Every structure is written in C-alpha cells, then in structure tokens.
Amino acid sequence: xxxxxxxxxxxxxxxxxxxxxxxxMSALSSLGSRLTGIVTTTDNGGSTGRIRRSEGGxxxxxxxxxxxxxxxxxxxxxxxxxxxxxxxxxxxxHNLGNLMLKALDNLSVRPLDAINLVRSLLxxxxxxIPMSEQAxxxxxxxxxxxxxxxxxxxxxxxxxxxxxxxSPQVQATREGLDAIAQADLILIGPGSFLTSLMPLLLxxxxxxxxxxxxxxxxxIGNLGRELSVAAAGLTLQDKLTLLESKMGGKxxxxxxxxxxxxxxxxxxxxxxxxxxxxxxxxxxxxxxxxRQALEQALVALAART
Length: 305
Known about the structure:
Elements: E1 12-16, H1 18-27, E2 35-39, H2 46-55, H3 61-70, H4 76-82, H5 96-107, H6 111-122, E3 127-130, E4 137-141, E5 147-149, H7 151-154, E6 163-167, H8 174-182, E7 185-188, H9 193-197, H10 204-212, E8 216-220, H11 229-232, H12 236-247, E9 254-257, E10 270-273, H13 287-304
Parallel strand pairs: 1-2, 1-7, 2-3, 7-8, 8-9, 9-10
Antiparallel strand pairs: 4-5, 4-6
C-alpha cells in the first residue's frame, strides 16, 4: 500500500457490531462518504430481540447504535432517535430508533432504504450497510454438540462452541460486497468476538469478497474483558486464527491492541500496541487515540511494501 494516511484513502470499510463499530466509525467520521460500515444483524436481546420476536426481520439494535455514534449535529430528530421508553408498560425498554427503523423497514422495499432515510434525517455522511437484509439467527453447537440458538444464549456458554452458523444461511447485502471490492483498507473489530465479529464471517459471499480484496486488513482488539466466558479465554492469536479460518487464509496484516495484550506469539504482522482507552469509559476506545493508531498502522504497512 503506497497510501500513508487515512486522508489518502478513497474507501475504508469497517466490519463489526454496534458499540465497537460505532466507535470506529465515529473516530473516522471525517472521511465522510468514503467510510462504510458493515454491521452485524443477528442480535436477539433487549429491545431488538423483542421487536424481532414480535415482528420478525433483521436485528436493528447494532445499526441504531452506530447511527447514534455518528450523529454530529444534535437535533430534535437525533433526540427522538436516541429516546428510550421508561416505566413498566409495553413500550418500557424499547428504543425509539429501533422502532423507527423497523417501521421504515416495513414501509420500504429494503432495510438499506430504511437506513439511508435515517442517515438523511440525521445528516450522516458515512454509509452503513446491514451484513444481510435477510433475517437470520446465530446458532452454535456447544462442547456437547447440542444446538444453542441466539446470541444471548451463546454468550452464556462457558466453553468455546464446536461450531457457529447462521440459520437460515443468508446472503450478504450486495452493496456491502461492492464496498469490500472497492476498499483500500478493511477494519475488523472491536466487538464481542463470537456474537459481533464472527457472524459476519459466516456469510460465504462476504468471506469470498474478503479473499478477493487487495486491501490491507487491520484487526482492532477489545479493551474490556469479553462478557462471554468462552470468548474471554481466547488469546489474540486464537482470535486471529479463528477469523482467518473463516476467511480461508492469512489475511490480517496488522493488529491494534492495548498494552495489556500478550503479543508474544504474533509473527509476520504489524503490531501497534499502545494505550487506547477513553477517559470517560475505559473499556471504550478513545476516538483520537484510535485514529492515531490507525495512522501508525498505515505508515508501517506502507513501509513494508
């Protein structure tokens, strides 16, 4: 890669779930329309899960979370989108943004149209694409070989599952595949490993697009401990191995991790290891520090080629 700064790049694609992907995209929001997020759509917890059980469709919570973090101009529209109902009635706990997206989904031809309508309403330039526009749930086979359905239950597993799959097996959104094909840089993470990052790589056409890509690929590690006991036991090398087993080869060129991560077994990759924590929420990435780390990774990758 000859490009040495983020400003030089024409297309950056970030893959992940709500909190982590949203933080990455807000850190890079100055890229505007050159930035695309591909977001996991298999969540079945909280307000999102209740909507899916009642109305069906893809999970909207991670998409809403990303959109919230990309809002740069507070307005009545943004306050509405972020509003969560209190009390003890039927609406209690529901996020209005989730309901708005689901309503637009019902009115629109495609979920992507719903997202784009909200992006326009909230004046968000970066693109956000659901990993699939077809509803699917995450399913695991636990260490006994028993099927476990849904992200919420999978995150409760104390042992790493024997297998992960989507049910049903769906197709990636074509705009997401196009974005990967055009990308100069692809980012994966941070996020819950089993339930935010791995679902994306269970889409066969998406992993094929990643294999065909000539872009450099950077993995961004979590700062906080995984909520999943099974995922918390994985080392950085374990995670890279599992990700690349789905991709079909060694494709991650660089990693960005905190100083507490063991990098002793990492070889043949650029490693950027430095403090990344936000002052207000230590388990979230500081946007400025994350952007700096990505710039350093680009310089190192350019020097290597």
